[in-house]
Amino acid sequence: MRVAENDQVRRGQVLARFDAEELDVALQQATAGLALARASLFEATATLEEAVIDERRIRSLVQRKMQPRATLDEAVAKRKRAEGGEAYARATVQQAEATLSQARTRLEKAVITSPIDGVVLQRSIEPGTTVAASFQTPVLFLLAHDLGQMELHVSMDEADVSMVAAGQRATFTVDAWPNREFDARVLKVYLYHTVENNVVTCTTVLAVDNAEHLLQPGMTATATIFTGRRQQALRVLYFVDGKLVKDGTAAEILP
Predict the structure, then answer these.
(1) pTM for this one?
(2) What CATH number did the domain enclosing 208 receive?
(3) Does residue 129 sit in the same domain as residue 160?
(4) Which residues, other chains included, contact 70 with Cβ-Cβ below 8 Å and sequence gap of 6+?
(5) Contacts of range 139-142, beta carbons closer than 8 Å, 24 or more positions apart
(6) Confidence bin at 220 (pLDDT 50/70/90)
């Protein structure tokens, strides 16, 4: 085990290594198997070349009436058997090469490397842990890219979808920093809607600059998206459970 949570990692950096003793043995066996297969192919090729030469020589002798026809038939059969042996040996080499390639791949997979430059958010294994892949590939490490740029996924009511567009300004707050308001921009609005308890919502993605690294993955937030601004607009006061009563030319709110 080479890394822990919160460690910065580079692309290609080793995160963990599995016990590869059996894989090393398999690689050695595959290497030896390929060597034997190539030796057999070399021998089969030499046998075929010899059979071809014998056939030519005997054919010449038969044409000059110096050997019986049966001798040529036997030489032709020998050459065909040699061709079959050479083809079999060549296929055996290809099979051995595939076995060796597979053994190398398995050994390479025993070393887990980081696919990105980023940070380790979670490590799900400890030294000595047995890892088995059945129906689903187990998650060993959870990595994130540079946390200086993050995304905030906001659940928004379907009634507000028409007012939101990419590029609009937004702000949000998080419980960890209750007295601070963070800036953001609308990145995109998902077309797919979800229904839960008969409430239809869609996900809006906000782009967040986290240069100070105050925000962390998994935090919950409350966001406000600014969909428009009107100048010199008429404002009407609204009070719940109040009444508007006219007294001459003046108006007052009575609770």
Answers:
(1) 0.57
(2) 2.40.30.170
(3) no
(4) none
(5) 140/15, 140/16, 140/112, 141/3, 141/15, 141/16, 141/112, 141/114
(6) very high
